[in-house]
């Protein structure tokens, strides 16, 4: 990401003046010996930008995690996020704040919320924003109080005439929700955006657990100040702690039409997210997922890769719901400290209900296309089994947007779907049938962030099986980073999902879009039916040394019916309040 020349030292010092609170621990590992201001002599220490993203959101340095309080106010998008101003590891968490008019180019502001009072003296953790009927934004967040309890607090803007909402005030009557009798006070966090029902009562959901049972608990209020719990949880599952819940209406038209309610939870034990959707009744305060949907850790996921702690918001300017998510690093803590940063926010995605009502669909927001530059087009190119070719013409394939449509020429060559896989998840299948394992129809797809000699490469591919349920073909989509880097101490899992597509009806065709951004890969298959995010750390395929290829390692020939690849310009991030955002 293109950083303006001014440093962040003033920004950091303002935070650190009030940062004497003790370290609080959640599921993140704490590194007390690595918590230090990374500035010397009035200037920031060097940061290794070689694998830093160009058009994804990340601050100039240090650790970030959950997106918080995302909203739209007076023509400006607001992104708050968990941030450590002292280092590239988790700890000292504050609500950092950035604003944008296009979701791409950002102005970094001073932290909005940081520990100042007994109700949040030990940390300001995740939460959400709600715009009240009079237009006043309210932030509800989890504070760690002086007794180590997780409590819910509210904050309001100091000056509503400021579209950037730079200063926030915490009322003295906080906390507005404290853990009651029988509630696990060390696992009671991450309030959702609130909504008001037909009865005029406000409602919100908080994540918690009872032993191994994850819970989404509902609270109600008449005045946004005094909240009471509903007797029964909104939903629960035997999956451990439910954190970062989200609950919102959605339809196949984005925000209109036949509405279902989505409940998403982040599973602290697995670090994956799952969602259901179904019917919500305000009168009885009941939520019933659609009967055909799997629940818990076997349920649907927004993203089948490195994507966590997500948060959605309704964009009134364009009548769409937008999804944000956090991508953690997959390198070592020592690597993060060396490079001076850790954590990236995924590209914001539009999210809606599929027309067939079976799942949610998602796609990068349209604004991303404004960063497209130099363009390469390939049409109707045949790729025989075992062949590959380089996509030439891009200035830097390490920072690109690639849309491609493949057509499998002979589906009869698809290998049988092993009956032993019927109870397994897609990641298990991808691990057994990775990009280097020859198949019938596939693996075929892209080698991205590839070195000249192809010893470093990450495969984004499809593989088609036959004899699935009801005799249909099974389409597997995988991100396989097993050959992505020569570096040691990397976590390189294959991520995968099964795409709900009848490839016979499509004539063997299946589309893929991959956003490539140095150490970040976001892939969308089947027009948004599947998304997979991976973090990779090449040592050779860096910057202008990276290459892009199309490959086919199956018996069936594959045709690239069309491929459009674009160089992507860097987004702009500024700390200068006098600089226009765009």
UniProtKB/TrEMBL annotation:
<dbReference type="GO" id="GO:0033948">
    <property type="term" value="F:fructan beta-(2,1)-fructosidase activity"/>
</dbReference>
<keyword id="KW-0326">Glycosidase</keyword>
<protein>
    <recommendedName>
        <fullName>fructan beta-(2,1)-fructosidase</fullName>
        <ecNumber>3.2.1.153</ecNumber>
    </recommendedName>
</protein>
<keyword id="KW-0378">Hydrolase</keyword>
<dbReference type="InterPro" id="IPR001362">
    <property type="entry name" value="Glyco_hydro_32"/>
</dbReference>
<dbReference type="InterPro" id="IPR013148">
    <property type="entry name" value="Glyco_hydro_32_N"/>
</dbReference>
<dbReference type="Pfam" id="PF00251">
    <property type="entry name" value="Glyco_hydro_32N"/>
</dbReference>
<dbReference type="InterPro" id="IPR018053">
    <property type="entry name" value="Glyco_hydro_32_AS"/>
</dbReference>
<dbReference type="InterPro" id="IPR050551">
    <property type="entry name" value="Fructan_Metab_Enzymes"/>
</dbReference>
<feature type="domain" description="Glycosyl hydrolase family 32 N-terminal">
    <location>
        <begin position="56"/>
        <end position="364"/>
    </location>
</feature>
<dbReference type="InterPro" id="IPR023296">
    <property type="entry name" value="Glyco_hydro_beta-prop_sf"/>
</dbReference>
<dbReference type="Pfam" id="PF08244">
    <property type="entry name" value="Glyco_hydro_32C"/>
</dbReference>
<dbReference type="GO" id="GO:0005975">
    <property type="term" value="P:carbohydrate metabolic process"/>
</dbReference>
<comment type="similarity">
    <text>Belongs to the glycosyl hydrolase 32 family.</text>
</comment>
<feature type="domain" description="Glycosyl hydrolase family 32 C-terminal">
    <location>
        <begin position="367"/>
        <end position="566"/>
    </location>
</feature>
<keyword id="KW-0325">Glycoprotein</keyword>
<keyword id="KW-1015">Disulfide bond</keyword>
<keyword id="KW-0732">Signal</keyword>
<dbReference type="InterPro" id="IPR013189">
    <property type="entry name" value="Glyco_hydro_32_C"/>
</dbReference>
<dbReference type="InterPro" id="IPR013320">
    <property type="entry name" value="ConA-like_dom_sf"/>
</dbReference>
<feature type="signal peptide">
    <location>
        <begin position="1"/>
        <end position="26"/>
    </location>
</feature>
């Amino acid at each position: 990401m293109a950083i303006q020349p001014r440093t962040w030292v003033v920004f950091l010092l303002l935070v650190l003046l009030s940062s004497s609170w003790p370290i609080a621990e959640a599921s993140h590992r704490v590194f007390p010996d690595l918590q230090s201001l990374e500035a010397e002599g009035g200037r920031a220490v060097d940061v290794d930008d070689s694998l830093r993203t160009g058009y994804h959101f990340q601050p100039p340095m240090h650790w970030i995690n959950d997106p918080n309080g995302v909203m739209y106010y007076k023509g400006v998008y607001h992104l708050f996020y968990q941030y450590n101003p002292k280092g590239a590891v988790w700890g000292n968490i504050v609500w950092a704040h950035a604003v944008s008019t296009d979701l791409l180019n950002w102005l970094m502001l001073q932290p909005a919320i940081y520990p100042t009072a007994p109700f949040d003296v030990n940390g300001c953790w995740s939460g959400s924003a709600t715009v009240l009927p009079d237009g006043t934004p309210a932030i509800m967040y989890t504070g760690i109080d002086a007794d180590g309890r997780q409590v819910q607090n509210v904050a309001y803007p100091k000056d509503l005439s400021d579209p950037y909402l730079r200063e926030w005030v915490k009322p003295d009557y906080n906390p507005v929700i404290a853990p009651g009798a029988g509630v696990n006070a060390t696992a009671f966090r991450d309030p959702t955006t609130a909504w008001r029902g037909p009865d005029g009562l406000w409602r919100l959901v908080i994540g918690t657990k009872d032993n191994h049972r994850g819970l989404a608990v509902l609270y109600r209020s008449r005045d946004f100040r005094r909240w009471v719990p509903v007797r029964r949880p909104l939903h629960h599952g035997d999956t451990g702690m439910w954190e970062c819940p989200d609950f919102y209406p959605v339809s196949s038209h984005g925000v209109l039409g036949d509405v279902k309610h989505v409940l998403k939870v982040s599973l602290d034990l697995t670090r994956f997210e799952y969602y259901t959707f179904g019917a919500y009744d305000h009168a009885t305060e009941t939520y019933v997922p659609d009967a055909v949907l799997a629940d818990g850790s076997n349920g649907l996921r927004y993203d089948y890769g490195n994507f966590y702690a997500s948060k959605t918001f309704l964009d009134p300017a364009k009548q769409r719901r937008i999804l944000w998510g956090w991508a953690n690093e997959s390198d070592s803590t020592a690597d993060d400290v060396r490079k001076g940063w850790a954590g990236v926010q995924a590209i914001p995605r539009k999210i809606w209900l599929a027309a067939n009502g079976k799942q949610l669909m998602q796609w990068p927001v349209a604004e991303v296309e404004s960063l497209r530059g130099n363009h390469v087009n390939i049409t109707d190119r045949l790729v025989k089994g075992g062949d590959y070719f380089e996509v030439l013409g891009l200035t830097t394939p390490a920072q690109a947007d690639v849309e491609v449509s493949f057509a499998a020429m002979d589906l009869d060559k698809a290998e049988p779907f092993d009956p032993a896989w019927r109870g397994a998840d897609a990641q298990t299948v991808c691990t057994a049938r990775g990009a280097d394992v020859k198949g019938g129809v596939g693996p075929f797809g892209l080698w991205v962030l590839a070195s000249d000699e192809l010893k470093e490469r990450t495969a984004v591919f499809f593989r088609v099986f036959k004899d699935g349920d009801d005799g249909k073909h099974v389409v597997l989509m995988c991100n396989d980073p097993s050959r992505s880097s020569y570096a040691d101490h990397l976590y390189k899992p294959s991520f995968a999902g099964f795409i709900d597509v009848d490839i016979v009806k499509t004539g063997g065709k299946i589309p893929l879009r991959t956003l490539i951004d140095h150490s970040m890969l976001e892939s969308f298959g089947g027009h948004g039916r599947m998304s997979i995010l991976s973090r990779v750390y090449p040592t050779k395929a860096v910057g202008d040394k990276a290459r892009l290829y199309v490959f086919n390692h199956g018996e069936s020939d594959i045709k690239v019916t069309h491929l459009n690849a674009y160089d992507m310009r860097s987004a702009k991030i500024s700390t200068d309040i006098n600089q226009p955002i765009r």
